Amino acid sequence: MDRLDQVYIAGRFRAAHGREELERIDPTTEEPTGILVMADAHDAGLAVDSARDAFAGFSRTSRRERIDLLHALADAVAARAGALTEATVAEYGAPMEQARWRAGLAAGNFRLAARLLEDFAFERRVGGSTVIAQPVGVAVHIVPWNSVYNAISVKLAGALAAGCTVVVKASEFSGLQNQLFAECLDAAGMPPGVVNIVSGRGDVVGEALTGHPDVRKISFTGSNAVGKSILRKSADRLPRVTLELGGKAPTVVLDDADLADAAVKALAIAFANNGQACIAGTRALVQRRQLASFCTAIEAASSTIVTGDPREPGTTMGPLVNRRQFERVQGYIRMGLADGARPVIGGEGRPRGLDRGYFVRPTVFTDVTSDMTIAREEIFGPVLCVIGYEDEDHAAQIANDTPFGLHAYVIGEDDRARAFARRIDAGRVAINGVAHDPEAPFGGFRESGIGREYGVFGIEDHLELKAILGR
Ligand code: NAD
């Protein structure tokens, strides 16, 4: 059993001042694997002090120095990709191949920011004035447990390119991944104080950081409830706030789609990352006349889902991250059944043959209406709702009938799907399958958040504009 008790502050690892311990559990076996000693408000204060002290120097570094730092970070995470992948599997149960792909995103995010920084315009003429973009100040990045390296690196890449110093508040459920990532930063030669990492409880460390008077930027990825509480609290001091929150993405299957292919895609879109993805397409909208055929196609396509030990090469579906998530998802499945939805595959309980580990049965419900709780709330597990529509207008209306607006998917003839994509209110719409573009903006409409990150948008997200007027 290993004990993780370090914070990374001012360029060195030191024992956390916090004393509260959290038992770390392998979600595949439910066996304890170690202890995380969580940071506390005192650690949070030290981390902000360190970032504030480093800001004066780092904000004046040259473009070239920051490009070199971003490349060094990319090299450091790429060199440790194997260890980062294994930690993801051990800590959170992601299937090996998916974990490897996600770990690889971090190096790409740093390299992309380095390339964009080469010719990023920090100064331009507008009317008779000079407009200067300057780093906003000390940034706090708060991230969840479900895609740790990508969430940390995409925010960091933008902040460092802009010239901000950062405190990362990583999730208490990813202690090992946080520790390894901090080691990468250190190995890359991070100047002291430019990036500081603390793991601890949100209501302790998170609150201390978001309420700190020296913090000028908060970039939060996580649940809607916490995001909204941060925004409410920010009204007192007006730090710049970016919120990347939850989703309930529609996967719209147009009536010219090949239903067998659409069913395979709909499952992949819904169940990636064991269904624990903010971008998961968890509402499949299908023309009413095609519902029965689509459900038959779903049953056939589900035979390729392999639930089990995420370390096994053939596994496509691992366990959920912890018991709380397991209970939560079981609760939603029960709620769906009680509301009259009918399972095409799955249902309550564990998959056959898996009597330990936080495994749930991949579940697809049909006979779902847009007003049911399972169609409205983010479940964050492998539960897909199939909803019937009459025509394209009706499909667009259902797609947008949600408090969220992070992502959407359209499956059908290419041009038609692209035209339909324009009717959906979501930050990203992917055509005919899962697609990732690290240069495209990422963020939500409506209650899925405020602001955009990734690529050049992540750099702009850490800048404040100043106009210099007159001769
Ligand atoms: P969460 O909101 O519980 O926690 C996210 C982070 O916030 C953690 O580090 C947590 O410790 C911290 N936190 C909790 N309370 C806090 C407080 N009062 N003040 C400051 N920080 C606090 O979310 P989670 O369960 O870790 O992650 C799942 C959620 O994240 C889902 O809703 C999912 O959709 C969302 N998510 C969104 C995106 C996106 O880019 N839009 C990406 C991944 C996950």
UniProtKB/TrEMBL annotation:
Task: Tell me if Transcription regulation is a UniProt keyword of this record.
Answer: no
Q: Name one GO molecular function term.
A: aldehyde dehydrogenase (NAD+) activity
Concerning SUPFAM superfamilies, the annotation shows: ALDH-like
Q: Does the keyword Oxidoreductase apply?
A: yes
Q: Which reaction does it catalyse?
A: an aldehyde + NAD(+) + H2O = a carboxylate + NADH + 2 H(+)
Residues of the active site are 244
- Which stretch is the leader sequence? none
Q: What Pfam family is a match for this entry? A: Aldedh
Q: Which InterPro entries match?
A: Ald_DH/histidinol_DH (IPR016161), Ald_DH_C (IPR016163), Ald_DH_CS_CYS (IPR016160), Ald_DH_CS_GLU (IPR029510), Ald_DH_N (IPR016162), Aldehyde_DH_dom (IPR015590)
Superkingdom per UniProt: Bacteria
Which residue range or ranges hold the Aldehyde dehydrogenase domain? 16-468
Keywords on this record?
A: Oxidation, Oxidoreductase
Q: What is its EC number?
A: 1.2.1.3
Q: What top-level class of enzyme does the UniProt entry assign?
A: oxidoreductase
| PANTHER family per record | ALDEHYDE DEHYDROGENASE, ALDEHYDE DEHYDROGENASE-RELATED
Q: Which family does it belong to?
A: Belongs to the aldehyde dehydrogenase family.
- Record protein name field: aldehyde dehydrogenase (NAD(+))
